[in-house]
């Protein structure tokens, strides 16, 4: 017996998230970001913390009710550059490690981000959003009244930033002695700042400079020559390339990318560009897992991509890969060696290698750990926990354990997933089963902490979460298999998972089944209730119901539909065939529809169409609209609405299951 209580939706307010750990140049200290929620003000607060590696003690470095992020050590380890919104907009600040008040470096009209130190420590490159005619210090005055939006491009809105306002992301360099700033890029192009060569000669950045950005889907790597101001294109305009990392001797660049062989289902690889020969080659062609962190999360905040990190020998490097439900730290070298440096059932969502290549600090989560920092001893593979930011909270609650599952689908494909057992499981009793389907579809569930799943388990449900075909982590053939077959093999995978769980666990009540998911998972939820009455209740979130209208209303609709459904508006019959709305007349399962009003990825008209189609037939359905929220409500939306969403899910299943 335990006196601990189960997880509730409201526990989200108490949890703390650690992210973006960075070791000092000497490796004896680190800086990281800790994010928590101010429930009364309904905001996130992020501050920088200093960590003494030897003693394991942390102390707060920034204070206030703001978002402080992206800490970056100066080359001499004496200062930290970071981003803060304390002035009203995100700007760059400089903080001495000895203490004192942070110095504001930039006053850009639309904010600044991504601080990047020059190797000599006298300059900082950064990103700034600018409209045509604006400078790094002077911007347009805000309009007093609403103005019309003239739309001349197909890419005119984004779920992240809303309707396009004419701002483009540019790169600038600040001299820290004079505080003078120089724009490095210009034009109607977005640039992504990536790295500064160790010899100080080049800045690497990404951009798409195609003639028609509406029909171009690529990112190339460019090198900016500091001395001459000239720009050189490194990649060939055939795919997505970025996260450039220079070798310590500045002779090579490792980068992440792919050449779109399977459109957005293509596995990301590690590539090498050699400065002397100007050649580009793939280093991880034999790795049948995507490089990067493709884990679906609903808790961690401020997660950033650690990219590739070189060892000091100019031959070896480290990176993350998503494999079989885990995020794994891999080692590779230029001779072709490739193997996991740390392979555990866990989610590594950040790491930083020390200068001697003997240790790395890592942010790690697992199903029973929301996230903490660990020190990895690379030669032995041993881990030492450095932080316990949720220790008090975890001492009060009972977290449910998960078991890994492997089973065969209807066509003999092998599929993987997990079952989280109900809290307080008692022998001889029966429990309802909630099936969770992730979004993407090219993402993956795995061994990380899920607030939603733990809450449902605390309510007495078994929770089944799987990676159907289309998920990352199981090879190129598996992730590509969903394209052109939405509602086919992927549907069979989900139903096979249900059958397997019922057969394996005698405590599951086969007559008390629920289904839920968001985005692609919402599509699958809609599809399932239109094709079977097996579930007693369903909750569809930020979903797709009609591919015909999605084609024109989503911020990615016109190309995502072509890539995923293999159809455009010249083939409306196929778009409609794969649309759950076409089968709405078959829906008998009580259906709760949750959708954000400012979701431009899967716009709310998708929910409205489905709601009316089901309601008009007199079937049991309700719709909940979340104001001032986008597609990422469940991950980083307004805290009170994230909690409300969880409670709507809990209450709907509680009513019918």
Automatic annotation (TrEMBL):
Lineage: Bacteria, Bacillati, Bacillota, Bacilli, Bacillales
Domain (Peptidase S9 prolyl oligopeptidase catalytic): residue spans on this chain: 449-656
Name this protein carries in UniProt: S9 family peptidase
GO MF annotations in UniProt: serine-type endopeptidase activity
Keyword entries, A-Z: Hydrolase, Protease, Serine protease
GO biological process, one term: proteolysis
Taxonomic source organism: Rossellomorea aquimaris
Domain of life where this protein originates: Bacteria
Family: Belongs to the peptidase S9C family.
Pfam families reported in the protein's UniProt record: PD40, Peptidase_S9
């Amino acid at each position: 017996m335990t006196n601990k209580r189960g997880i509730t939706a409201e526990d989200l307010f108490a949890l703390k998230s650690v992210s973006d750990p960075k070791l000092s140049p000497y490796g004896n200290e680190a800086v990281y970001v800790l994010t928590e929620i101010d429930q009364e003000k309904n905001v996130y607060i992020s501050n920088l913390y200093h960590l003494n590696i030897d003693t394991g003690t942390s102390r707060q470095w920034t204070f206030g009710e703001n978002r402080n992020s992206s800490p970056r050590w100066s080359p001499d380890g004496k200062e930290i550059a970071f981003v803060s919104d304390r002035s009203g907009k995100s700007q760059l600040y400089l903080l001495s490690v000895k203490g004192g008040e942070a110095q504001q470096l930039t006053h850009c009209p639309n904010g600044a981000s991504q601080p990047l130190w020059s190797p000599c420590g006298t300059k900082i490159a950064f990103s700034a959003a600018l409209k045509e005619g604006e400078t790094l210090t002077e911007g347009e005055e805000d309009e007093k009244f609403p103005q019309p939006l003239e739309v001349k491009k197909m890419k005119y809105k984004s779920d992240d930033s809303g309707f396009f306002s004419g701002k483009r992301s540019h790169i600038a360099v600040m001299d820290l002695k004079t505080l003078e700033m120089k724009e490095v890029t210009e034009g109607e192009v977005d640039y992504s700042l990536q790295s500064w060569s160790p010899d100080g000669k080049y800045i690497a950045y990404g951009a798409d400079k195609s003639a028609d950005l509406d029909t171009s889907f690529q990112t190339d790597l460019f090198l900016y020559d500091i001395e001459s101001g000239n720009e050189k294109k490194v990649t060939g305009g055939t795919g997505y390339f970025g996260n450039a990392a220079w070798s310590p001797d500045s002779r090579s660049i490792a980068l992440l990318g792919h050449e779109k062989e399977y459109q957005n289902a293509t596995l990301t690889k590690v590539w090498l560009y050699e400065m002397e020969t100007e050649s580009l080659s793939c280093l991880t062609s034999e790795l049948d897992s995507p490089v990067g962190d493709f884990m679906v999360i609903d808790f961690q905040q401020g997660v950033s991509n650690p990219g590739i990190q070189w060892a000091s020998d100019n031959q070896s490097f480290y990176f993350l890969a998503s494999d079989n439900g885990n995020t794994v730290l891999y080692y590779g070298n230029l001779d072709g060696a490739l193997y996991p440096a740390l392979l555990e059932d866990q989610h590594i969502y950040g790491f930083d290698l020390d200068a001697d290549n003997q240790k790395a600090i890592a942010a790690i989560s697992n199903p029973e750990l929301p996230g903490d920092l660990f020190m990895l001893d690379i030669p032995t593979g041993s881990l030492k926990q450095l932080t316990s930011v949720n220790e008090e909270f975890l001492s009060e609650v009972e977290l449910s354990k998960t078991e890994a599952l492997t089973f065969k689908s209807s066509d003999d494909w092998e599929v993987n997933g997990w079952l989280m057992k109900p809290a307080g499981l008692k022998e001889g009793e029966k429990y309802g089963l909630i099936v969770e389907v992730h979004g993407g579809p090219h993402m993956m569930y795995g061994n990380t902490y899920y607030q939603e799943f733990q809450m449902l388990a605390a309510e007495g449900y078994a929770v089944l979460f799987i990676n159907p075909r289309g998920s990352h982590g199981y090879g190129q053939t598996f992730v590509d298999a969903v394209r052109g077959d939405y509602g086919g093999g992927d549907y069979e995978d989900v139903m096979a998972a249900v059958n397997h769980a019922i057969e394996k666990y005698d405590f599951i009540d086969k007559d008390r089944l629920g289904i839920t998911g968001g985005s692609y998972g919402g599509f699958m939820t809609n599809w399932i209730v239109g094709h079977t009455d097996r579930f007693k209740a369903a909750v569809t979130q930020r979903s797709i119901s009609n591919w015909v209208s999605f084609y024109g209303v989503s911020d990615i609709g016109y190309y995502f539909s072509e890539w995923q459904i293999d159809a455009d508006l010249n083939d409306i019959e196929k778009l409609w065939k794969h649309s759950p709305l076409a089968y709405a007349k078959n829906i008998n399962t009580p259906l709760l529809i949750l959708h954000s009003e400012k979701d431009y990825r899967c716009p709310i008209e998708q929910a409205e169409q489905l709601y009316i189609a089901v309601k008009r037939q007199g079937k049991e359905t309700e719709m909940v609209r979340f104001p001032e929220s986008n597609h990422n409500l469940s991950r980083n939306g307004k805290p009170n609405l994230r909690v409300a969403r969880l409670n709507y899910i809990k209450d709907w299943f509680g009513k019918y299951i």
